[in-house]
Description:
- By secondary structure, the chain is of the alpha/beta class.
- The chain folds into two domains: 2-81, 3-Layer(aba) Sandwich (Rossmann fold), CATH 3.40.50.720; 83-117, no CATH class.
- Helix content is 27%, strand content 26%.
- The protein contains four helices and five strands; from the N terminus they run H-E-H-E-E-H-E-H-E.
- A three-stranded parallel sheet has the order 1-2-3.
- The chain is flat, with a radius of gyration of 18 Å.
Amino acid sequence: xxxxxTGGRGIDHxxxxxxxxxxxxxxxxxxxxxxxxxxxxxxGGSLDVTAMRGLINARRLFVxxxxxxxxxxxxxxxxxxxxxxxxxxxxxxxxxxYEYFDAKQYAGKVVIADRET
Length: 117
């Protein structure tokens, strides 16, 4: 269970991309005063209010249209934009990567790679 990975504390930031069916499971993983971002299609149904028993901050996020997404990708390609990568950690050093990220000393993306890049 997720809480086992956090020593029982729970997760501070959750991004829920599923539906009303998976939302209660995500809420169960939340730490006290966690933030949950809802990027999901709410097409109907109901949520048992007991799923919200912990103190959380929920925010609904919306994505743009397909046309806007395609325009963004054309601009990225045209201008050859690439992310700035500060450091790449091999998968075996995942803990070190999170510690590095948590120290907030990076200037760019911190990457965990599952193979040589």
